[in-house]
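Hypothesis: this fold can be encoded by more than one sequence.
Test: take the structure tokens below, design a sequence, compare later.
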């Protein structure tokens, strides 16, 4: 059994990895229904209720060669595309998975090793539809501009399988 490095676990939105992501988390919760009664005595009892899930991701805000906020490319999804989805109240397909392809052997001029065409998810994660419930941009003096995005699941979270 091997461990997974954090760099190898990514969030993909509508088929594209988040650009310059730094952190991701998937949270799944089963609410509890109280089934305590006289028969359980002084102890409480519960049973699982509805399951909800959410994903939080942190990433760096990127700019293009002209210094303007970068828009999404064929390879990755940008801050502006996520803002557009939030403002349009559009649901997105989210995949939380390890990467299915290898990094380039050599870095490009910007130090990136993203494969041509972008990262792809492996067939070992989870997927579902979600809405973006919040985006928080952080622009501290002397630090890189970053953002945190929250996805709230709509319905089932299922095993991801590549088409």
């Amino acid at each position: 059994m091997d461990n997974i490095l954090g760099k190898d676990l990514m969030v993909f939105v509508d088929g594209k990895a988040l650009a310059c992501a730094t952190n991701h988390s998937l949270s799944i919760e089963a609410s509890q229904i109280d089934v305590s009664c006289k028969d359980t005595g002084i102890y409480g009892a519960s049973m699982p209720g509805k399951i909800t899930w959410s994903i939080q991701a942190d990433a760096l805000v990127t700019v293009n060669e002209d210094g303007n906020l970068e828009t999404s490319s064929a390879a990755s999804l940008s801050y502006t595309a996520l803002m557009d989805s939030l403002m349009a109240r559009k649901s997105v397909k989210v995949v939380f998975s390890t990467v299915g392809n290898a990094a380039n052997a050599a870095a490009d001029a910007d130090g990136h090793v993203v494969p041509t065409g972008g990262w792809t998810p492996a067939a070992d994660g989870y997927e579902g539809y979600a809405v973006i419930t919040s985006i928080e941009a952080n622009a501290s003096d002397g630090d890189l501009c970053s953002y945190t995005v929250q996805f709230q699941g709509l319905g089932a979270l299922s095993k991801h399988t590549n088409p």
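The longest helix spans residues 79-87. Residues 137 and 147 are 4 Å apart (CA to CA).
Hypothesis status: open.
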